[in-house]
Amino acid sequence: MTRPLIAGALALAGVLSIAHGAWIPVKAALAQALLNNAWRETLYSGQPLKPWPWADTWPVARLSVPAQDKSMVVLAGANGAALAFGPAHVRASAPPGSADNSVIVGHRDTHFAFLQKIKPGAQLQLESADGVVHHYQVNDVRVLHETDTDVLAATRGRLLTLITCYPFDAIVPGGPLRYVVRAQGITGHNPSLDKKT
């Protein structure tokens, strides 16, 4: 009688563990649906709109990677609560789309997992809250220690910096390494480059 109870308890613990692990990507995907609605309303009204009444963040941009068919809403404030639902803009950096360094961070196992496939030359698009789509071309991909904060510094030109934890397949999250993708703003957009990764 004791063995079946132990086996049942272990099986239940295993199912709960798998469900908990699966919840993070599911929550991220469901949140993006609500965020897309809030982003559309933000563009329409010109006012920031929270995706749900108790949210402490709101959409500030939309990041797209045409070659990978990726598009995601970027949230205000790179704190743990916002990052659970999508990539987030570092408030100390320039506003998305401005003529300076705009920094966006995201989790390596959900929204920013695609960064491991990004190579120099790839095209990125960033739609700012005024509805303008800004085009960028990746010019640098590197791994840095978390204490190397030069990538957060202001610049003279339009720059987009995307940061996530590294390595992508780490079992324990939050190590000291960061994967950094930097993309320079481009004025003459070449749609044929959207096909390359």
Walk me through what this model shows.
There is one protein chain. 24% of the residues lie in helices and 29% in strands. It has helices at 2-45, 80-83; strands at 59-65, 70-76, 88-89, 101-105, 123-128, 133-145, 159-166, 177-186. It has an eight-stranded mixed β-barrel with strand order 1-2-3-4-7-8-6-5. The chain is globular, with a radius of gyration of 19 Å. The termini are far apart.
CATH superfamily: Sortase
Please compute the radius of gyration using only Cα atoms: 19 Å
In whole angstroms, how far apart are the ends? 58 Å
Major sheet: size, sense and barrel closure? 8 strands, mixed, barrel
Helicity, as a percent range: 10-25%
CATH class: Mainly Beta
Q: What's the helix-strand series?
A: HEEHEEEEEE
The coarse overall form would be globular
Defining key terms:
alpha+beta, Sortase, Chain: A, eight-stranded mixed beta barrel, globular, disordered C terminus
